[in-house]
Design goal:
Blueprint: H1 30-33, E1 36-40, E2 44-50, E3 58-61, E4 68-70, E5 76-78, E6 83-87, E7 100-105, E8 108-111, E9 143-145, E10 197-200, E11 222-225, H2 232-235, E12 249-252, E13 270-273
Parallel strand pairs: 8-9, 10-11, 11-12, 12-13
Antiparallel strand pairs: 1-6, 1-8, 2-5, 2-7, 3-4, 3-6
């Protein structure tokens, strides 16, 4: 599955930007406080590939100040150390209609606010659509770090498959949302074999919200969760921790029942209290 969004572009992290360019960042680094940014660790390429007519309308920048129209299904060359920014605005698009995903070569570190693709001000913490970022980085096996995911209000399937098989990803982004909806995190990090730890702030789960989320994350040896009750229907069909490291630490509220299997706490791990 590969899914993305349609955008109308505007500024994010700059002052006075327009659709044709202009507007510096006022001294702020857009990679940390503004739009989604990709930094090349080595000579790299990046493309946003789509197979449907529902192509997104995007702007890109290489300096965070001058913006140009982004071309779909086109490789952009990134020299080692260079940056590539994307920004957009969308509130209604159904992302299932835009069968799209990033394709990368070389070595690329993502940073910046993923919400810059749906909110031109970068202020929103509400994901507007179901499947919003589902499959966005599917198979991006050269991406070493993830962008920021600051949303606190999620939707159904919003991050499903987002980082599926991102085998170079060494760390998970912060996940501040406290309430999950159906399949919100389904298969989100499945196959991320280099990731070693994750913190899940959610206190309320929903059916399928964690299904396959951490499956086959073979280096994962530290999980911290904030929910204090298991959702049997949520874990029974798609084990969320199958294939993680044989030993590790599972930190959770004391009230969470100590059930050890691929649907709950990984067998062989040590449960500790928050």
């Amino acid at each position: 599955m590969a899914i993305l969004l349609v955008f109308t572009l505007a500024g994010c992290g700059d002052s006075g930007g327009s659709s044709s360019g202009g507007g510096g960042g006022g001294g702020d680094d857009p990679a940390s406080s503004g739009p989604l940014c990709f930094t090349a660790n080595a000579a790299s390429t990046i493309q946003l590939y789509t197979t449907t007519g529902a192509s997104p309308s995007l702007q890109y920048s290489t300096d965070g100040a001058t913006w140009s129209a982004f071309e779909m299904n086109h490789d952009y060359d990134l020299a080692s150390g260079s940056k590539f920014y994307l920004r957009g605005d969308n509130a209604t698009f159904n992302t299932m209609a835009a069968n799209a995903t990033f394709i990368m070569t070389g070595s690329i570190a993502a940073s910046g606010n993923i919400m810059s693709l749906v909110d031109k001000t970068c202020a929103s913490t509400t994901i507007p659509n179901e499947y919003c970022f589902g499959g966005l980085f599917w198979g991006c096996d050269v991406m070493t770090t993830p962008p920021e995911l600051p949303a606190t209000t999620l939707t159904k399937d919003c991050y499903m498959d987002m980082f599926y098989d991102c085998t170079a990803l060494t760390a998970a982004p912060e996940l501040p949302a406290t309430t999950l909806l159906q399949d919100s995190y389904m298969s989100m990090f499945q196959g991320c074999t280099a990731m070693t730890s994750i913190v899940i702030k959610a206190t309320t789960l929903a059916k399928g919200s964690l299904s396959d989320m951490l499956a086959n994350c073979s280096s994962l040896n530290s999980i911290t969760v904030h929910f204090s009750a298991w959702e049997p229907a949520d874990f029974s069909e798609s084990p969320w921790v199958v294939g993680v490291a044989a030993t590790g630490t599972f930190k959770c509220p004391a009230a969470l029942p100590a059930t050890y299997d691929t649907d709950h706490i990984p067998a062989g791990w040590t449960k500790t209290d928050l």
